[in-house]
Amino acid sequence: MSLLLALLVLFSTCSFTINEHICGGESISYAIGVQADTCGMEMTTADHDKTMFEQVPCCDDITSFVQGQDELSSSKEKLISTQQFIKAFVYSFIYILPKEDQEKAVYKPYAPPPLIKDIHVLDETYLI
Predict the structure, then answer these.
(1) Which domain holds residue 46?
(2) What are phi and psi of 28, to 5 degrees?
(3) Is 32 among the domain residues?
(4) Phi and psi (nearest 5°) for 78?
(5) DSSP notation for 46-68
(6) Per-residue model confidence (pLDDT) at position 74
(7) 43 within a domain of the structure (yes/no)
(8) DSSP state for residue 85 in the 8-state scheme
């Protein structure tokens, strides 16, 4: 859960760009942070010099910028949340986790009673 919250804070503060290449009214490719792949039908400057009429290009590049948060919280809120975290951390180590200093149970080695008579021979029961 803490890893998920850490990633949420990380991604909420990151800014990034989304580039989209549109050709003929249809979206061809998307890219995040880099230039989108083109369809190969862009007009170059050499093509403009050869034509007599100005042609409308069929391709468009759209760039969207997603702004992340600049501030997460004020310093007073950070101080209070830090104090609460420290209290919870200390509480978990003092009260919740088991203590290793507890006395270990000491057991004497078991000594069976002395064998006075062989019971199997007396009862004439033999394992075959």
Answers:
(1) 2-66
(2) -95, -50
(3) yes
(4) -65, -40
(5) HHHHH-SSPPPPSEEEEEEEE--
(6) 59
(7) yes
(8) H
